[in-house]
């Protein structure tokens, strides 16, 4: 049993009953809940008072129509039988940028927030409170005060391996929005495919977005292929459309453009980007054995700057993700030009070369008023000089970088935050959606805490939040993806929104019935 808290914001005419927090079946579970007596009857006579929240009001109107068939009208004002969307900037100090107040009374419903995002999230909670069928739809009286625990609540889709397309992405954004997730991490380039149109370099999509066959089965030798061509990419117009679609749902789209590794598709398009400059094909096999950019060549750096320039012009996001994981150093070690560059610039190891390169990209992005993010290898936590047998510490990663932790010792997080870096905790053992349910059960996913056990409280604010990752090697289509994503997406949403003290797997499982029914109707996902 949890002690419920008083609102203290404005008077409530409801008779308040102290009951367990889990009485409200909402995912993610709100911060504070009080239930009251009576119900609000939702009918065709109900109206929405939008105020200045026209976009959100129309979204609510559509959601009610889809859920009940009721055609609710927008009206400037009304005395009773209304759902009121109220903007109150004075609440920002208390509720932050994304918090809201939701109050359901027998005669009216109100959603009050200091921002349009807060209004939107209040609507998502309201949608889950609607009960009924046929011509009768009701909402039980309740007062909710809510705001997220973390500001970074992300889902990552890898399309470098398999292209999914705009329709699938929009469906994912819809589910993210209902679960109050606010960041779509879009992995658009990898060894097996380049999925974003770059106008200055058309071969990236003419060649790099297509492969002639694909490894299947996950066999140890990796020698089984489907023999089917696979390809696809997003035009810049399509990307803009998706960005706008996400923005209407208060979701920021963060692009990931991999560098300096996972770059074989780009090198297949323009061989001069690699160290050997030999023509290669877009890989059919998965893994990390492929060519990497020749970061000692000024032409390659200019190419990456050109690509990032177009990416920045497309994406409003203040964060650009550069990947930076799983870089194979063999080609750098074997290339005389790279070795000469390292000697000239007093760079002692390939790991230091990667950090020097990464810092150069960080400086370029900073000059464009963007912030760089990357997987935790960019911190030199896993960049080992094989010859020396130890990690080099000569080069230091640029300040302001966001570290996305995914693998290695959890001490890496301590190292990152103690050095002043912000961290997104995406520990693969808990957040990788390509892992089987045997490896990451729904309950294990739900039990993940983005703040590692034992982390000094003074560093807790350095944990921006968490992300769950849908890596694409073995998900060739939407159906196979959905089986991995749902229902675990709901668990990750609650991990990133709900206070740890308010989490309860049994209560979550009951609230999940709303989403399970929704996903079953949409995609037959049970």
Note down, in words, how this protein is organized.
Helix 4 packs parallel to helix 6 (236-248). The chain is elongated. Strands 1, 2, 3, 4, 5, 6, 7 and 8 form an eight-stranded mixed sheet that branches. An eight-stranded parallel sheet has the order 15-10-9-22-21-20-17-16. With 526 residues, the chain is of the alpha/beta class. It has helices spanning 54-68, 92-95, 116-129, 166-178, 203-206, 236-248, 264-269, 298-314, 330-334, 336-344, 350-367, 411-418, 428-431, 442-446, 478-485, 488-497, 505-523; strands at residues 32-42, 47-49, 73-74, 82-87, 100-104, 108-113, 131-133, 136-146, 152-158, 183-187, 189-190, 193-194, 210-211, 230-231, 252-256, 319-321, 371-375, 384-385, 390-391, 402-405, 422-425, 463-470. Residues 1-23 and 382-391 have low confidence and may be disordered. Residues 150-498 form the Glycoside hydrolase family 20 catalytic domain.
């Amino acid at each position: 049993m949890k002690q419920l808290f008083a609102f203290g914001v404005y008077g409530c005419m409801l008779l308040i009953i102290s009951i367990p927090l889990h009485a409200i079946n909402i995912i993610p579970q709100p911060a504070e809940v009080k239930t009251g007596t009576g119900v609000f009857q939702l009918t065709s006579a109900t109206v929405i008072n939008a105020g200045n929240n026209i976009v959100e009001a129309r979204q609510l109107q559509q959601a009610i129509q889809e859920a009940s068939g009721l055609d609710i009208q927008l009206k400037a004002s009304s005395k009773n039988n209304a759902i009121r969307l109220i903007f109150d900037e004075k609440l920002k100090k208390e509720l932050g940028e994304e918090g809201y107040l939701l109050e359901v009374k027998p005669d009216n419903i109100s959603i009050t927030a200091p921002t349009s995002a807060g209004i939107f999230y209040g609507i998502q909670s309201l949608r889950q409170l609607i009960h009924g069928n046929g011509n009768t739809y009701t909402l039980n009286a309740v007062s909710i005060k809510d705001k997220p625990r973390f500001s970074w609540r992300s889902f990552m889709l890898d399309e470098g391996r398999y292209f999914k397309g705009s329709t699938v992405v929009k469906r994912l954004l819809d589910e993210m929005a209902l679960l109050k997730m606010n960041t779509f991490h879009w992995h658009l380039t990898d060894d097996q495919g380049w999925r974003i149109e770059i106008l200055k370099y058309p071969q990236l999509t003419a060649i790099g977005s297509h492969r002639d066959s694909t490894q299947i089965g996950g066999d140890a030798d990796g020698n089984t292929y489907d023999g089917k061509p696979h390809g696809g990419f997003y035009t810049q117009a399509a990307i803009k459309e998706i960005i706008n679609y996400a923005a209407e749902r208060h979701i920021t789209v963060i692009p990931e453009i991999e560098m300096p590794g996972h770059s074989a598709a780009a090198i297949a398009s323009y061989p001069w980007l690699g160290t050997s400059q030999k023509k290669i094909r877009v890989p059919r096999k998965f893994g990390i054995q492929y060519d990497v950019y020749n970061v000692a060549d000024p032409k390659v750096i200019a190419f990456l700057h050109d690509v990032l320039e177009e990416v920045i012009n497309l994406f409003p996001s203040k964060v650009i993700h550069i990947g930076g994981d799983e870089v194979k150093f063999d080609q750098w070690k074997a290339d005389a030009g790279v070795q000469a560059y390292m000697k000239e610039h007093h760079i002692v190891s390939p790991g230091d070369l990667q950090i020097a390169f990464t810092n150069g990209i960080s400086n370029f992005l900073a000059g464009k008023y963007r912030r760089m993010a990357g997987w935790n290898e960019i911190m030199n936590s896993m960049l080992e000089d094989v010859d020396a047998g130890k990690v080099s510490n000569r080069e230091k990663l640029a300040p302001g970088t966001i570290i996305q932790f995914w693998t290695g010792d959890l001490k890496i997080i301590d190292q990152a935050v103690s050095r002043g870096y912000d961290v997104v905790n995406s520990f693969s053992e808990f957040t990788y959606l390509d892992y089987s349910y045997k490896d990451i059960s729904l309950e294990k996913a739900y039990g993940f805490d983005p703040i590692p056990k034992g982390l000094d409280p003074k560093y807790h604010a350095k944990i921006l939040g968490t992300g769950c990752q849908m890596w694409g090697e073995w998900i060739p289509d939407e159906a196979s993806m959905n089986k991995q994503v749902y229902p675990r997406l709901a668990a990750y949403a609650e991990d990133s929104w709900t206070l740890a003290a308010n989490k309860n797997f049994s209560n979550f499982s009951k609230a999940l019935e709303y989403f399970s029914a929704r996903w079953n109707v949409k995609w037959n996902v049970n």
